Amino acid sequence: MANKKFNIIKSTCIPIAIDNNNTDNIIPARYLAFTTRDPKFYGDAFMHDLRYDANNNPVPDFVMNKPEFSEAPHEGVHEIIVGGQNWGSGSSREHAAWAIAGYGVRVVISSSFADIHRNNLLNCFVLPVIVSREFQLELFDSIAKDPQTIVTVDLPNQTVTNEATGHSEKFDINGYKKHCLVNGLDDIDYLLTQKDKTEAFEQTMKKY
Known about the structure:
Blueprint: E1 8-11, E2 13-16, H1 23-26, H2 39-45, H3 48-51, E3 80-83, H4 95-103, E4 107-110, H5 115-123, E5 127-130, H6 133-145, E6 151-154, E7 159-162, E8 167-170, H7 175-183, H8 187-193, H9 195-205
Parallel strand pairs: 2-3, 3-4, 4-5
Antiparallel strand pairs: 1-6, 6-7, 7-8
């Protein structure tokens, strides 16, 4: 997945109001057998068995197939998912995070996440944002009233704002992961930025 630097994400949202939306919903188990890392492959599989019926036809009533939410995410459009409670429960499969990133989503907002899935999202440069239940429900309500509702996620200041109401909340994030997202660094990239310090430490240790 592309290491896209984070700053401020300002976008419309896809509301997936499914509590306990588990990783088998996010990407069905049969996709775990594939070895490709093609983002589009996994993006096409995102929520596949809810998006499509047994004949691979779109399910009209599913939110991602509704005209106002069916446009593929791109800058400023549908880069944010507002999800139900306990997003990403179930198995720890990394493929679930690959699917979300491959679909083009930059941020998932929920009142709670499964811990392993939350970390997998961060490793795929997708920002999981935890908000209060009240704010989560307000976002769903605003989007239901106007699908063009804009939400602003400001990573440097760790705030999320519902532009329809002007209400904001702060969110927490691990300082190391924040540094990596802001600078577009994965774990290996980060280690490479510390090369001089690492080599200096090795020289010091040679004295012992």
